[in-house]
Amino acid sequence: MSEPHDRRAAVTGIGVVAPNGTSTDTFWKATQEGLSVLDRVTREGCEHLPLKVAGEVRAFDPAATIEERFLVQTDRFTHFAMAAADFALEDARLGQADTSGEPYSIGVVTAAGSGGGAFGQRELQRLWGKGSRFVGPYQSIAWFYAASTGQVSIRRGFKGPCSVVASDEAGGLDALAHAARAVRRGTDVIVAGSTEAPLAPYSVVCQLGYEELSGADDPARAYRPFTEAACGFVPAEGGAMLVVEAEQVARERGAGIRALVAGHAATFTGASRWTESREGLAHAIRQALEDAGCAPEEVDVVFADALGVVEADRAEALALADALGAHGTRVPVTAPKTGIGRGYCAAPVLDAAAAVLAMEHGLIPPTPNVFDVCHDLDLVTGRARVAELRTALVLSRGLMGSNSALVLRRGAGNA
After folding, report:
1. Which of 69, 155, 156, 274 is the most buried (most CB within 10 A)?
2. Intrachain domains 9-253 and 262-410 with the same fold
């Protein structure tokens, strides 16, 4: 890449709140073991809806980490974001950072698709059931997809570049790329990522129009991409936030370089046009590799989009072959999201977090619940695979047609 060495974008912190773990350590332990936590939906008000299986975050107490004054004005998806941001900043040794001297040195970028559905539904029920005087003042902001960026920045006193990426599920990767560009342009630190909470009744009803949504009621069979039995995806809540920082700034303060955000590209091919997504995704992969100065054969692992729709899965497998050549059928591919569900914008950020951890540990996590692969892929199934990993490719596609590819390099501090 063309930016100066000291402005390279490094990942220095990871914070996770996921169905399989509410810390980075517990998330990685479950991910590397290939545990599946998909289960029947238990959220109140969803009992009689057609969605039967999801990835719920059940072991999470927002009050344990977030002040009451912020809890009352925010939705569950923002609770996830604030907690994950805290974890990521602590991991990056910025947990107690005093921004009073340089408040513009740190910014926030998030992506979200579903917004604050539970908060919005509750307040609208009060409006129609009791009257306007019973609607809280935060209804105007808590449901909004930009709420997490705003609340994280306000709570922590971050006044650097703050933004929200609205580009479908692929927005999770686009947010990380946006953060990397801000760092290259001169901002020292960006807290970036995505969290979602799409399992409130109103939010679920909105999702029922997606043809790609799995209606299966067996958790072990509800989300099985790259197989002939693929019947759609299972939604999930939770997500991850990463600290993206100028490499030299991080080194000067003694922080570890967990990975480098080396390259990114995005394309658009239209809603549910999965055959066409082959070309769009392949183009994004090529451009991301070019941005990273990376040859196709240098890719050591691919974290797949893995939609769980036969046509879409076929297109992704062919896109890898198109973009990586013969290496596309040999490179190890994984989709750990089959064990926790596909959390919309949060899904690729969790994949990016897993990719960083995989490079650090030299271990490719398996794809839970998937065994009988029917596409020409070296899909890692069953158990984790030991491998020397220096470059990871993370892919994402959105139901509305966005495609995104992100290249991560192993941090020199972990070499």
Report:
1. 274
2. yes
Given this structure, which CATH class describes domain 9-253?
A: alpha beta
Q: Does residue 392 have a pLDDT over 50?
A: yes
Contacts of 98 (CB under 8 A, 6+ apart): none
In the chain, domain spans: 9-253, 262-410
Residue 3's pLDDT band, with cuts at 50, 70 and 90, is very low
CA–CA distance, 347 with 363 (Å, rounded to integer): 20
Q: Does residue 152 surpass a pLDDT of 80?
A: yes
The encoded tokens of residue 78 equal: 């923002």
What global pTM score does this model have?
A: 0.96
Which CATH architecture is the domain 262-410 placed in?
3-Layer(aba) Sandwich (3.40)
d(CA 343, CA 336): 12
